Fold this protein.
Amino acid sequence: MPIHPRDARISLLTDRGINLSRELRVISNTVKPRLPKPEWLRIRLGDPANQNQVLKLIEGLNLHTVCQEARCPNIFECWSDRTATFMLGGDICTRHCGFCAVGKGEPGSLDPDEPRNVAEAVRQLNLAHTVITSVNRDDLPDGGAAHWAETVRQVRARSPDCKVEVLIPDFNGDEDALNTVLDAQPDVLNHNTETIARLYRRVRPDADYQQTLTLLQRAAERRDREGRGMKTKSGIMAGLGEDFEEVVDLMRDLRRVSCDIMTIGQYLQPYEKRLPVERYVTPEEFAEWKRIGEAMGFKHVESSPLTRSSYHARQQTELGERR
């Protein structure tokens, strides 16, 4: 009897030691056809000369960007403006989020030259605001926090006038790891909520909603205690199965932990084996979330179909400082 392709896939997964139940959940969630993209999700291509310059710089310094690894729809626009979001810790993540395009598995050793190379890229691009993120490194005792802090310090040393925004993982709730990053004094501490609490098991099976809120609260409390000007920030993807009011409830949760800036954008399925888009949210709904959030007290809410955590990050921070 011939082997069914699905059975061959299951056998391959088992041979590779991958968590079978988790992968089967992802496969079962992607069987329905993709929804057609609406008109408002058109993407700007931008200036190819600047895009090529950014790409050559990144490749020359052996760096990774979340722009490439996460298949960001704004990559052409941002790279045309000589802007990139640098990704620390390699291009393999230890977690298995259902939405993410970044590779999964066992990552290699940290590159000791990476903090210096990121700082050099920031200097050569002459950035006024840089965003630095990373894969999850649950294989490391501190989740990579010391590597994070060293990168911020190196950027400060080479580009003292550049604002530094860090988009960090949850470090498995380790407060010491969070404090290691905060000791380097970033200008913006960002940690994404990604989705509403009800969907965490499906969307972020290795994360915890309350742990995310606790991280943001700890960062805000330390900032207030020390009289810093640092902003806290978080973001979500819409279109994964939440309803309008559930997003409003999440906004209230973020305000309760003193989150300053929020981003809301449309989830886009990066490839077939990731979670499907449940619906495309209209621009009018995004605009209403922005209005509601800023009425709640957020210093700024960036809410539109193509919004991502680092999209217009400098402008987000500047707008937040004016409120």
